[in-house]
Queue: 2 jobs
Job 1
Amino acid sequence: MRIASLQKRKLVTLIAFLMATILILSGCGGGPEEVPEEESVSEAPAEETTAEEELPTFTMEEIEAFDGQDGNPAYVVVDGLVYDVTESGMWSGGVHQGQFQAGQDLTEEIMEESPHGTGVLNRMEIVGQIAE
Ligand code: HEM
């Protein structure tokens, strides 16, 4: 009887120890740590949106001056966004393929006449947007 009750006590102690260990380990499993990560990820798009809203605004009359001639920068407008093509070797003197002149809205031309479409614009810096 005595031996049996001693063994029972040991067993209860062992189970209690195991349960405490499991509780401590699952407590360290990092639930709270994930929360700040999610917060910081959700903040990023908000900042990007703000940056886009803060793009400088141009009128089409102002854009005409950026024709890439006489040392002027060369800007082209596509879909309301202003792209800087000054540094592109394919736009030297503000002219592309001998027929397209910078300082204009070329949305229709790039979509309907070019073999490349708008994908090439990803290489160009966006420097502004057109005032509505
Ligand atoms: C007949 C029409 C056109 C032809 C044949 C033409 C042809 C080309 C070719 C062969 C390239 C180089 C392709 C490459 O590097 O992957 C190019 C690049 C480019 N094109 Fe056109 N294009 C045309 C119209 C236009 C128009 C209307 C725009 C208006 C914005 C435009 C904007 C650009 C830009 C931004 C690049 C990239 C230049 C660079 O990477 O330095 N293209 N085009």
Job 2
Amino acid sequence: MPESTIVIRKYSLKDREAVRKISVETAFSGEDRHNIVTDDEILADILTLYYTEKEPASCFVASSDGRTIGYLTGAKNKKYMQRTFNAKIVPELISKSITKGIIFERRTLNFLLHLLISFFKGAFSTPDFSRDYPATLHININKGFRHRGIGTQLMFSFLDFLKTNGINGVHLATASENAKVFFVKLGFTVLFEKRIDYLKYVTGRSMPYCVFGKKL
Ligand SMILES: CC(C)(COP(=O)(O)OP(=O)(O)OC[C@H]1O[C@@H](n2cnc3c(N)ncnc32)[C@H](O)[C@@H]1OP(=O)(O)O)[C@@H](O)C(=O)NCCC(=O)NCCS
């Protein structure tokens, strides 16, 4: 069978559904997401809505024979992204969760409870890296298309885009065990590392939580 042609390009509205689908399928480091959050629409909103609605120009996709099979959602300024997410996206999510009734479901409540406990215990707090590394990103490739250099190509496109826009650095946090080799190979260094246990009630184990950074 001939190799498919991979194209890396800017995100556009026609990629929206595919990006949302990949985001939920790759959430929670491969754990069965339905044991954690019951509603895919809300989960996709949490993972992608800021990027696709507020900063689509900083997002890239990979397509294979016309099908979107991976994405990189980026933000030029993580602080601005976080503020906008809290002020604009969170109220939208709460309202949608109430309307759909999922906020009252046992699994969702359980997840929110563990997330909140971890949050208040400072589990997700990290030093502020935004002065030296202002931008941030998420990257996900469909399972069947990994290890073919597609993630690397998406990263090169985003890093070039940041440099063109005069951004002096980028950082990201991930709980992915496998991501370390990938980011280190791209010249990122580990800025901060710890373990988090907000999903331990489902997985029975804590997970690594690592912040990677690269100056541009
Ligand atoms: C991590 C991810 C984005 C990498 O994309 P990819 O297209 O598979 O990566 P590439 O083919 O460009 O790999 C480049 C190098 O990274 C390293 N690498 C990539 N995935 C790896 C893995 N799972 N384990 C160990 N090393 C890995 C390898 O050294 C690889 O070089 P090689 O192929 O010469 O050995 C992709 O595997 C993915 O979407 N994983 C699930 C979600 C995730 O972890 N996202 C990152 C956190 S936000």
